[in-house]
Specification:
mainly beta, 3 helices, 2 domains
Length: 219
């Protein structure tokens, strides 16, 4: 079984001046970041990132500035975006409001600032699947499990991923929903008639997230 040495817990402060590429956001520098340093470490069966690959992306700071990076990923264990430079992993020291993994037009978009629900706070990042008057959000959380075999001298752990979906209504309230038409209609009683009409016209049964996404995007 493939093992990963995952760097955890301890953060070493290190100044980093990372010149980013010129793109539609212009040129910005990430001036100072927290390097994810190796503290205590053990064997991990997987990693806490949403993607096995680190790809280009962009970070939006709370002051409205965009920063382009060449290798970006989302750590679902600590709920933070992280990027790599010269084979080292960093967290931006500035506060990130949103970020995009991949192309800014078609990439995976994440945002925080939504109302608290379940274990999440307004600082929790969600993948934004539909961004209209009704928003469809996807929240992914990685929990750490101890999977050390009996009598094993080596500590072994793995990250277990749990995904939940939410709707943000026009009044900005948030509600958790399931993957079926009934759950969506109950969450949005004021838009139920229009949702039924769109689903009927497009022959969508709303039994999967792709069809639910199509209906909400047309709402």
């Amino acid at each position: 079984m493939k093992k990963y040495a995952f760097m955890i817990a301890c953060l070493a402060t290190q100044s980093l001046w990372a010149q980013v590429n010129t793109n539609q956001f212009g040129v910005n520098q990430i001036e100072g970041s927290n390097q994810i340093a190796v503290g205590t470490y053990t064997e991990y069966e997987n990693q806490p990132y949403i993607s096995p690959e680190w790809t280009k992306g962009a970070l939006l700071a709370v002051d409205g500035k965009w920063y382009a990076v060449q290798k970006l990923n989302f750590n679902a264990y600590n709920d933070r975006p992280e990027y790599q430079e010269q084979e080292k992993t960093f967290q931006p020291r500035f506060e990130v409001k949103a970020f995009v993994i991949g192309d800014t037009a078609s990439g995976i978009k994440y945002r925080k600032g939504f109302a608290a629900i379940d274990q999440q706070t307004p600082k929790s990042f969600y993948e934004v699947l539909v961004d209209r008057q009704v928003k469809l959000l996807k929240y992914t959380k990685a929990s750490l499990l101890d999977v050390t075999s009996f009598n094993s001298a080596t500590k072994q752990k793995k990250f277990d991923f749990n995904t939940m979906y939410y709707l943000v209504k026009p009044d900005q309230s948030i509600v958790r929903v399931k993957k079926d038409r009934k759950s969506i209609l109950e969450a949005l009683p004021d838009q139920a008639g229009r949702i039924e009409e769109i689903a009927r016209d497009r022959k969508l049964k709303m039994k999967n997230w792709e069809e639910i996404q199509q209906v909400l995007a047309a709402l």
